[in-house]
Amino acid sequence: MPEGAARAYLRDLPEAELHVLGGGHWLLETHLDEVVPLMRDFLGRVHARGHS
Q1: pTM for this one?
Q2: Cα(31)–Cα(34) distance, rounded to whole angstroms?
Q3: Would you say 9 and 15 are in contact if contact means Cβ atoms under 8 Å apart?
Q4: Got the DSSP string for 1-52?
Q5: Tens digit of pLDDT for each residue in 20-47?
Q6: Is 18 left (phi over 0), alpha (psi -120 to 50) or beta?
Q7: What sign does the dihedral 29-31-19-48 (CA atoms) show?
């Protein structure tokens, strides 16, 4: 989604995380080294909350 639209979510969800990467639809092909740590961190936190 366009960055402006993504930032609009922060008005309604101020605790949300926003990571802006210039990869478009080919994000995993162009920015895999940046995406994997972000996804692992997020999934680790979500998984830990589900098992507290």
Answers
A1: 0.71
A2: 5
A3: no
A4: --HHHHHHHHHH-TT------TTGGGHHHHHHHHHHHHHHHHHHHHHHHHT-
A5: 988 788 999 999 999 999 999 999 998 8
A6: beta
A7: positive
